[in-house]
Design goal:
With about 575 residues, the chain is an alpha/beta fold. It is built from 18 helices and eleven strands. Helix 7 packs antiparallel against helix 9.
């Protein structure tokens, strides 16, 4: 109950203005419900050949008004009240949905802001499938629960009003109705543990299915080229069967609850009629009103329990999302409010930098060990070395995604502390072997790098990336759709589009991590020739296993075992002077 109260407060205060409108609409709905019932009783009495209005139940509430309006006038008033009630219910549903979106939207924004503002070492350890599930399925269930919260209030209030009216009219029948309400609520409480278990299994199966679908869709190309589509299909089918089984089990459980409620409703209607006819000998007009109240009240009882269970189903998602938000926000980096860039203005230096992943353990060597290196400003620097020697970690440190365990990294002589990291990242553009492209036009993908760029600037960037010719050959040039993740482009074309997008950012430092490995030698040489003319005072850092790429660099830093093993400095004629460095002890 405490979690439900906290959930309700969160929903209400997510938008106080809309909640005020919803509360006012709820009160109006209840008043119209009571008014329709008050109008119905004299209508039935007057329909019996002008029977005395004083004998009608609740006649004192609107007897004078009914006598003044007459049957036709009262009937019209009754229809108007029902029309207003229907319109108000529809309007309230829209308001409730907007409140739900305000509540869930706040959680989604906190999740996304926390994720984007968290340390990379933390983010890289998260499962993307889980984050996708939380931002879609879990928050979707929470959205439904937030909207149903207002339905819960409405049902409870209407039940209270109808019960009060019936208590004034017939205490005996009200007592019977109260007893009838207690049993389904008691049965719901007894079945709550089983309901919770069914919903837990359903949530776990849904998470597993979403994760499998995401992984399978990402591996379609690999599966087709390796002839393993059958295995991917079997994995998806197994996950789908597990989800379908959990979903059917939950549906069966919910159906059993509805059957019990319907059966008990039939019993209660029979007992109510028996009491009204055989024991209390109520007149026909009162019995008709009694049946009207029953058929209006009992669905509300079923809706009340069903709505409560739906909200109860959403609460575990809320707990999971809140814990995830707290975990992410604990891993937040220092905020940077100026929104500016950090100008390199000098060399990027590593001074005795060491880094390891996770906590230090005995016998575990750091990925980078007391590394000292210098990337001169305005140069093209290549990073070389065998796999597993720390090149990716070096890049993540340069990009400000990771921070050194010990030692210092300096930009233009300024230590790159946590408070400067956001500004430094805004000064960097990075192109990897597989950069993200979106299922939209080529133009829109390029504008992600610089939203205000003109067409002339777009074409200039494409020319620098040696992509202008192939883009002109596309059916719609810049406005050509490129497919899901750039599927309509070749691997080399995708890399050149990503390079052009990075160039549009006019970065202080351009990082190319195997960014030309899909290009042929001629196109690659063209790209680096363009970059040499473009870089001016900008710095370019390249990681590549190709010796041909190293020849384009002003200097080549070679890593081995997490330390700088040698540095090659190219002179104007591109001949290299090689400096070897002694390795530090472990």
């Amino acid at each position: 109950m405490n979690s439900l109260r906290g959930f309700g407060c969160g929903v209400v205060f997510s938008s106080t203005r809309l909640s005020g409108i919803a509360a006012l609409a709820l009160i109006c709905c209840v008043v119209l419900e009571a008014t329709s019932l008050a109008f119905l009783t004299p209508l039935l009495a007057m329909a019996r050949n002008g029977a005395d209005l004083g004998s009608a139940p609740l006649a004192g509430w609107c007897g004078p008004l009914a006598a003044g309006l007459g049957f036709n006038g009262l009937l019209c008033a009754y229809v108007v009240v029902l029309g207003l009630l229907s319109a108000l219910i529809q309007y309230s549903g829209v308001v409730h949905r907007r409140i739900a979106y305000a509540y869930v939207g706040g959680l989604r924004r906190r999740l996304l802001a926390g994720l984007l503002g968290a340390r990379w070492s933390f983010v890289s350890g998260l499962k993307s499938a889980e984050m996708t599930y939380v931002l879609t399925t879990a928050t979707g269930a929470l959205l439904a629960g937030a909207q149903q919260f207002w339905q819960l209030l409405s049902d409870g209030l209407v039940i209270l009003v109808y019960t009060t009216i019936c208590a004034v009219w017939s205490p005996q029948i009200t007592l019977l109705a109260a007893l009838g309400l207690v049993l389904p609520l008691w049965l719901g409480a007894l079945r709550k543990p089983a309901s919770g278990e069914a919903r837990r299994r359903h949530a776990e199966a849904a998470l597993g299915y979403d994760a499998t679908v995401a992984d399978s869709l990402a591996s379609v190309r690999w599966a087709k080229t390796h002839g393993t589509t059958a295995r991917v299909f079997e994995e998806m089918e197994r996950s789908l069967d597990a989800y379908a089984g959990a979903d059917v089990a939950l549906l069966r459980h919910n159906s059993a609850n509805r059957v019990l409620q319907a059966a008990w409703g039939a019993v209660m209607m029979g007992l109510t009629l028996y009491l009204a006819l055989a024991r209390l000998h109520l007149p026909l007009s009162q019995i008709v009103v009694l049946l009207f109240v029953f058929f209006r009240l009992w669905p509300r009882v079923g809706s009340l329990t069903g709505t409560y269970h739906q909200i109860d189903h959403a609460l575990p998602f809320l707990d999971h999302i809140r814990k995830l938000i707290q975990t992410i926000e604990v891993a937040a980096e220092p905020a940077c409010t100026d929104g500016g860039r950090l100008s390199a203005g000098g060399a990027i230096q590593f001074r005795e930098v060491s880094f390891r992943y996770g906590e230090a353990r005995e016998g575990q060597r750091a990925v980078l060990h007391r590394l000292t290196a210098c990337i001169e400003a305005g140069t093209i620097t290549a990073l070389a070395g065998p796999s597993g020697t720390g090149k990716s970690t070096f890049l993540d440190l340069v990009a400000g995604l990771l921070q050194a365990e010990s030692g210092q990294m300096l930009v233009g002589g300024v230590p790159l502390g946590p408070d400067l990291l956001p500004a430094w990242r805004r000064s960097i553009a990075c192109v990897g072997a597989d950069c993200p492209l979106f299922h939209t036009s080529l133009r829109e993908n390029l504008l992600l790098g610089s939203p205000a760029a003109s067409d002339d600037e777009l074409w200039a960037a494409l020319e620098l990336a040696a992509a202008g010719d192939f883009v002109r050959r596309l059916p719609d040039a810049l406005d050509s759709p490129i497919g899901d993740r750039g599927a309509r482009l070749s691997a080399g074309e995708r890399q050149r589009i990503c390079l052009a997008r990075a160039i549009l950012q006019r970065p202080e430092l351009l990082i190319l991590d195997e960014a030309t490995n899909a290009l042929d030698a001629e196109t690659e040489a063209q790209v680096f020739a363009h970059l040499r003319g473009w870089k001016d005072r900008r710095t370019v850092l390249i990681v590549s296993h190709r010796d041909s790429v190293h020849r384009f660099a002003d200097q080549v830093l070679e890593l081995k075992g997490g330390v700088l093993a040698s540095m090659k400095i190219h002179a104007g004629g591109r001949r290299a002077a090689v400096l070897a460095f002694p390795r530090h002890g472990a």
